[in-house]
Design brief:
It is a single chain. By secondary structure, this protein is mostly beta strands. Helices cover 6% and strands 32% of the residues.
Length: 163
């Protein structure tokens, strides 16, 4: 059974540990989500518009084939999460732990990564349009076969980055 936004809002108001839950094909709009344990949840095929995640643990979360527009991830643990085959438009990642995130084959447009640990992330075969990495640790990340003509790496660690 698919969950709607009203059911999701009730669920997050009733409990803080939602780890390993299945939220496949969920549509969320104009929502703030904070202080939740969302480790290893499935957001596969979900749509997020004007959503802010703050102080949440999203380690291992699966956003495969999702659409994110005007989404903010602030002070989030996103280690080992998956955004493969996703569309990211006007998304902001601030102060995240993003170790080994899989962004393969995704489309990025006007996406900002600020002061974030992005070591060993995979951006292979992605389109990166208007993407800024500011003060990020991108050591050993992979950008092979990417369109990265309009990517800025301001004050970021690019040690052993593969392009």
């Amino acid at each position: 059974m698919l969950m709607n936004q009203k059911e999701f809002k009730k669920l997050i108001s009733d409990q803080s540990d939602l780890s390993k839950m299945d939220f496949t094909d969920l549509c969320l709009k104009n929502l703030e989500i904070s202080d939740l344990d969302l480790r290893y949840v499935s957001f596969v095929g979900s749509n997020f518009e004007n959503v802010k995640f703050e102080n949440c643990d999203l380690g291992g979360a699966d956003f495969t084939s999702s659409e994110l527009s005007k989404v903010t991830f602030d002070s989030i643990d996103l280690r080992w999460s998956v955004f493969e085959l996703s569309e990211l438009l006007c998304v902001n990642f601030k102060k995240i732990n993003g170790l080994e995130i899989n962004f393969k084959k995704s489309n990025f447009q006007t996406v900002n990564f600020n002061v974030s640990d992005m070591r060993r992330c995979k951006f292979n075969y992605s389109n990166l349009i208007g993407v800024d990495f500011v003060g990020c640790n991108l050591a050993q990340s992979e950008f092979t076969n990417c369109d990265k003509a309009s990517v800025d790496f301001n004050d970021s660690n690019l040690y052993r980055v593969k392009c």
